């Protein structure tokens, strides 16, 4: 006779952990529209940041998030299917914040002094990474599964679209497709280097200085190529 254990249904694998041929973006089940629900939603995200910094993503649980936020676990699951969705929402939150910050600088980009703008904005972002350790923890957590990585790529692409538009005055003769690729490269390099800069035993100032060198060299070449195209076209 078969044992009772052998008759049990196989344990269902979390979809976020499955190797998928076409990973889907992980999204909250719903986002709040009323003030009371919004406060609970925000409290859950704030508690998630604290927990990530305290214990890391491997030991991160939805139960502990709900307890820290003083929100019933059932309410958490009304918004988030699992911890992977939570961390994706934190990542989206971080990128939207940076997009808003970048929009504040946008008026300076068409000016001839774009190197000063770049220097100032990289310093600003580096300051965010130094003052908020949860940013690196969120970024690391986003590397944990195919679906979180796919979601992170979607978030980065949306940010890169904004950067691509800002590159237009610097590279007026560059094709839109090439400019989009340049923007995606820049966003990926910047995020990778900023997270590298706050690793243990890493000189933050030195890493940020190297990031600036990389970006300046890359954009100077792009500007020169675009100007050459204008001259010879």
Automatic annotation (TrEMBL):
UniProt entry tagged with the keyword DNA-binding: yes
Record domain HTH tetR-type: where: 38-98
Keywords carried by this UniProt record: DNA-binding
DNA-binding region positions on the chain: 61-80
One Pfam family in the UniProt entry: TetR_C_22
InterPro entries in the record: Homeodomain-like_sf, HTH-type_TetR-like_transc_reg, HTH_TetR, TetR_C_22
Molecular function in Gene Ontology: DNA-binding transcription factor activity; transcription cis-regulatory region binding
SUPFAM superfamilies in UniProt: Homeodomain-like
Region annotation Disordered: where it falls in the sequence: 1-35
Keyword field contains DNA-binding: yes
Family matches, as PANTHER family: HTH-TYPE TRANSCRIPTIONAL REGULATOR PKSA, HTH-TYPE TRANSCRIPTIONAL REGULATOR RUTR
Protein name listed in UniProt: TetR family transcriptional regulator
Organism field: Rhodococcus oxybenzonivorans
